[in-house]
Amino acid sequence: MEDLRFQHRVRARAGGIRKSAIVGVVASGNLEVLVERVLPDTECALDIKTAAIGFGEVWTAVIGDFVERYSPGGLRFSINDGGARPDTVSLRLAQAVRLIAENGQ
Amino acid sequence: MSTNWQNNRAARDARIAAGAGFARGKVVEASDATRLLEAVIRPGDRVCLEGDNQKQADLLSRALLAVDLSRVNDLHMVQSGVVLPEHLDLFERGVARRLDYAYSGPQSARIARMLFGGKIELGAVHTYLELFARYFIDLTPQVALIAAVSADREGNLYTGPNTEDTPTVVEATAFKDGIVIAQVNEIVETVPRVDIPADRVHFIVKSDKPFFVEPLFTRDPAAITEGQILTAMLAIKGIYAPYGVQRLNHGIGFSTAAIELLLPTFGERLGLKGKIATHFALNPHPALIPAIESGWVRQIHSFGSEVGMDDYIRARSDVYFTGPDGSLRSNRAFCQTAGLYACDMFIGSTLQIDLQGNSSTVTTSRIAGFGGAPNMGADARGRRHPSEPWLKAGAEADPDGAALMRRGRKLVVQIGETFGDKNVPLFVEKLDAIELAEKLNLELAPIMIYGDDVTHIVTEEGVANLLLCRTAQEREQAIRGVAGYTDVGRRRDHGMVAQLRERGVIRRPEDLGINPLDADRSLLAARSIKDLVRWSGGLYAPPSKFRNW
Asked: PTM per UniProt (chain A) (predicted)?
């Protein structure tokens, strides 16, 4: 297991009013993302527990692109990764942002 | 001075006479199979032990493995598939020494070890069509050991849905004074249809159990990922639609299975029915059932069959090639030729792609062989008939050429996710195949598809159209530009990739109006094997390993 943590300043708050959302599953080649609206609007944080060791550089690139593209201000992501491919990670993060932006609790 | 011009015929007759002692008519008991082989095979013979990627003459393999080494040794095996453990045991034991082949799927790791260990003297790794061609020129078998479903007493053979390589192997052997020995599942009064006429068959061995067939073309829709669905959407909208690809061949990966399952859903919504994917050179892929049932597919010619598809094929004879008995007639040589000359597109996956677009399924510890992919995935230089996709691709490659003199181009598409199993990158700076060729002192690295034949690369990051690249540098950046987060992808020149995107050389999902978040499993026309059974009206009977009910 490897623990990684990323913090970014972002330009805008993530849309929607929902407080939290969860997508994905913890399984080999997959990942679970819990997203919570708990941070100031210009901040975003990602805590990653990953089964794959030595992919720090790839995570940095994936997270950098994700933050740039979706500007997930105010969100904290807790990620449980079962060695998912980078494209799966990008997809789950985008799904998490979409889900928390939906109306609802 | 008199010269004998019929030595080979005399030798053949002597072999038949030697084998006749173990036969009643042409029929030999399974328990006498080894003695029959010892009688008809000579040391150093070229032997084709029928084994391709599906059907296996498994009884005859075991019988050959048990021969007395003082009578049979140093054989030169010329066979399309090295698939069963016995195929390699022959070399461990010294029954065989030299090998020319095309495909070694399940034995790819062991064959690599044996080549490194010097246990096998390698002629070459071929494509199917190339090896078949050599059967008629310089690798003609002296003995062919083949597999059929049934035989009559005269030796007429019914090879059934899995006819595959048999007619080609028999043609080369029987008409050049060779011996043909067939293992059959049963001996009957009258065969359902004559696939191989009796006068080309010298001995028949009744097997105690049916020959082994591998379900190689079944992909469980349950295992298809969102990433594969996204790449499939990109391929349909970014390549099938703009070129209007109607005649094509699909590889066996999950990405192409996803395309097959998206035709009746995503493809239908795009209004593409009847405009794309109507004529196939393709095995009977179960994943294509929903598209067939939805009226997408007009005709399919097959290399071989697929386990569980027999009743479905029989009931859909408007789509498949069938015999007077109603069952599928496959033929690998003809289907390979069809894929080479009559298809406008090949789309398939690979294990490694380099910066020039060369691809290979060889890694340093596995030599899987080529099978048919290099023929499907190559421009046929002898092609002369025009078609819309072929001409359009030709025009993209050479926009300034004179239209009447410009060759078309076959669309050769490599599709895959940027990271494969266990996060191994698809894109590499240097192919493992080159390292292997250096280690084994090969004269040629085993390249599956040469870069100059590849026209498009599709990954979840986008479509790269290599036909539009004008320099080697553009080509490299177009490849890096769809290589995602692999090292190759992260080392891209961002400025140049942006320019290539403006020119449409690279197209992202958003450039094609596709939202990656829509790549959902609900888009698949079937999401499980059971769904496929339902689509087939109960005609598809999946093998037990694919059943979970």
From this structure: Covalently binds the prosthetic group of malonate decarboxylase.
Rounded CA gap, B58 and B64, in Å?
Answer: 10
Question: Do residues B195 and B286 both lie within one domain?
Answer: no
* Last-in-domain residue among B152, B182, B213: B213
Show which of B187, B213, B239 is a domain's final residue.
B213
Q: Are residues B207 and B282 in the same domain?
A: no
* One domain for residues B292 and B170: no
For residue B283, give the nearest of B312, B263, B262 by alpha carbon: B312
The identity of residue B150, as a single letter, is S
Q: How many domains are there within chain A?
A: 1
Domain count along chain B: 2
Rounded to two decimals, the ipTM of the complex is: 0.91
pLDDT of residue B78: 98
> Which residues on chain B are in Cβ contact (under 8 Å) with A87?
227, 230, 417-419, 460-461, 484-485
Residues of A with CB under 8 A from a CB of B: 52, 55, 57-58, 61-62, 83, 85-88, 90-91, 94-95, 98
The stretches in chain B having pLDDT less than 70 are 1, 53
Q: Do A94 and B417 touch (CB under 8 A)?
A: no
* Closest CB to A61 among B225, B461, B490: B490
Residues with Cβ < 8 Å from B324, sequence gap 6 or more?
Answer: B193
Q: What is the pLDDT of residues B355-373, one digit of tens each?
A: 999 999 888 788 888 889 9
Residues in B touching A90 (Cβ below 8 Å): 516
Quick: pLDDT tens for B132-162. 999 999 999 999 999 999 999 999 999 999 9
The minimal CB distance from A83 to the residues B423, B516, B519 is found for B423
Task: Give, in degrees to the nearest 5, the angle at Cα A16 between A14 and A20.
Answer: 85
What residue numbers bound the domain in which A25 lies? 2-101
Integer Cα distance of B346 and B240 in angstroms: 11
What is the domain-level CATH number for residue B111? 3.40.1080.10
For residue B517, give the nearest of A52, A55, A98 by CB distance: A98
A47: domain CATH number is: 3.30.230
